[in-house]
Amino acid sequence: MAKKKTSTPNTEESNPETPSFKNVESFSLFTDFDINLFKAGKHYRLYEKMGSHVIENQGVVGTYFAVWAPNARYVSVIGGFNGWERGSHPLASRWDSSGIWEGWIPNVGNGEVYKYFISSNTGEDLEKGDPYALHWEIPPKTASVVWDTWYEWQDKDWMQTRHRNNALNAPISVYELHLGSWQRDPSDPERRLSYREIANSLVPYMKDMGFTHVEFMPVMQHPYEPSWGYQITGYFATSSRFGTPQDFMYLVEQLHINGIGVLLDWVPSHYPSDAHGIYRFDGTSLYEHEDPRQGYHPDWKSYIFNYGRFEVRSFLISNALFWLDRFHIDGLRVDAVASMLYRDYSRKAGEWVPNIFGGRENLEVISLLKELNEEIYRSFPDVQTVAEESTAFPGVSRPVYNGGLGFGMKWMMGWMHDTLRYFAKDPMFRKWHQNDITFSLVYSFTENFMLPLSHDEVVYGKGSLIEKMPGDQWRKFANLRLLFTYMFTHPGAKLLFMGGEFAQYAEWNYAKSLDWHLLENQPNKGIKELVKDLNGLYRGEVALFEKQFSPDGFEWLDTSDRENAVIVYARKGLHEKDAVIVVLNFTPVPHSPYRIGVPETGIYEEVFNSDNQKYWGTGLQNGSVNTEAIPLHGKDNSIEISLPPLGGVVFRLKA
To answer: Which of 85, 197, 215, 388 is catalytic?
Structure first.
């Protein structure tokens, strides 16, 4: 990159009417209607207008630039093409009080690096990246790059049928993945794999494991790698650390071709204060609140969007739609929704500003999320939005027309906390804590819940999933097998963070690969085989997904055996004959025989057993079992089974 000029443009250069303007031609992609929508917060496709766009004008290829900087007195484009000269290529301020500066620069095309030089009304001189840039330099460099999102997609079959794969009555098993640490170059552990290299490894792995979707932790451009992608500066660009936008499109396409959906983490809750980012973009609090009680996030030391500002709302909704539109993404998991919904989130008295009614709810956020979800499902009815929301805020995953926020699903954080707390206890004491493992069914159907065992649970000293389990090696692995069995047979969609599927011992480290060598060990390989088979069970038994968000799809058969810490429940589909019976033993004491009530007469066959020897279990299994006319658990018939130690078994009526 050429050395940047540091001098402020003189008065002549600062005036768009001076001869220096001959380097930039008057040109606009905006209509009056666009401007009205933008100013009203109703422009949902701003990425088609804002930013940089290569356009042929009168036979000459050049780039149109448009940037929102209403408090600037002068804006120019600086870059490698003009030696970073601030006075060389000024943009014109539109006449309509929109605050948009624009212009077309000839002989500038894809691959050119650039920034906006902004001389603010506050007296500051700033060099900013483009908020709508489609590509960026590789960090630590911070310039935007002129680029496009053209791609010749080959995933037509998926796009035409994905409504079936993304439906709420379909199996949804999500593998959460961090691009920089899932897998690295085996010959050079310091080298990250590219998007295309990841595709070559990830696609066959996903197919083999049977997950229906992958969820990528934020892929948007972020300068600080230890933020895991949650401190974004380039909302409209994929991280350049792994390649170009088209390289990421290839990864998405290959997953789609192989029948795997793609979810993205989306972060509208906060952003960092990097000098080249959107913080104080034109010398004022343009995207964030001026008042730190509303505009500063104390937990993450970052800044909060001004959700009530119309132009910012257009920015955010446009960004969400951008990924669904240009990258064929199948859903967005919206990060930190609770921190957005409440004005007093992580704040003490006096550190927050009540809403107009004196309450703690952020009314601007509530209206934004409703508008966002309405527009997403209007434009892309076959995708899903998922909220990471940890409070009891009502109706998060209920339609807007019913008073809800309109999300498709919500993370079931209460289930996750209760379950991990229960499993951490020595099995000897679990009989006194059975409410921890059964309480989730009290509220399971108040929302469309996704059960998350996410990255947040395996960092910062919390320990990996396997290390949370009590006991010696065998008991740790048996407990983890039982945890996964419980998760996959519990109502709701599923999400498992990478590494958990083969019992990674170490906490997750964003800077290194998962410990794939552990699969040489039989216990770890057994966990991997178990998760693979649980995915197959979940996808193969309609009773586990057809009514996964309805109370009609679940029935308690027995929660009374606290002494043995055993629970029994049925999962049901649209047809009674499709029901499965789940029996979970949370102690290391096997029970043979053990009798359970069943709803139908006939032969019940064991379709899953977490104690299978191929999972590194003891091999205490059942084959087919005949019902007997012995009433139990409110049923006229029952069966006698062998219940393995720290094991879960699943039965269904033999056809």
So the answer is: 388
